[in-house]
């Protein structure tokens, strides 16, 4: 699994959790139509929490992205 930093416009709910609404991927704006799955992953060694999302985009495709809580940045997961 490799990842690529991307720009995301997110909604912060009443608990302060970020939820992706729009992502900019390869200079293309993709609206998040539906969140299909969400889960939290934590590294065994570094204990860094990542909030993962599998979403359906306005392009008709499913995408996987995550928010790295330590770096405070969004990443797109490119699966081989």
3D structure, described in words:
The chain is mostly beta strands. The chain has one domain (2-78). It is built from no helices and six strands. It has strands at residues 2-12, 18-25, 28-42, 49-57, 62-68, 73-78. Strand 5 and strand 6 (73-78) form a beta hairpin.
Labels describing this entry:
80 residues; mainly beta; 6 strands; 0% helix
Describe what is shown at a glance.
With 80 residues, the chain is mainly beta.
Distance between the termini: 7 Å
Give the total of beta strands.
6
Shape: globular
Helicity, as a percent range: under 10%
Instruction: Give the overall pLDDT as a whole number.
Output: 89
Series of H and E elements: EEEEEE
Tell me the count of domains: 1
Unreliable stretches (pLDDT < 50, length at least 5) are none
Number of helices: 0
Task: Find the structural class using helix and strand composition.
Answer: mainly beta
Q: Describe the strand arrangement of the main beta sheet, using strand numbers.
A: 1-2-3-4-5-6
Instruction: Note the main sheet.
Output: 6 strands, antiparallel, barrel
């Amino acid at each position: 699994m490799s990842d690529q930093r991307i720009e995301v416009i997110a909604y912060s709910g009443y608990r302060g959790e970020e939820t992706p609404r729009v992502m900019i991927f390869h200079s293309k704006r993709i609206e998040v139509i539906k969140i299909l799955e969400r889960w939290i992953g934590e590294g065994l060694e570094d204990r860094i929490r990542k909030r993962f999302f599998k979403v359906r985009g306005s392009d008709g495709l499913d995408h996987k992205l995550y928010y790295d809580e330590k770096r405070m940045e969004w990443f797109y997961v490119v699966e081989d």
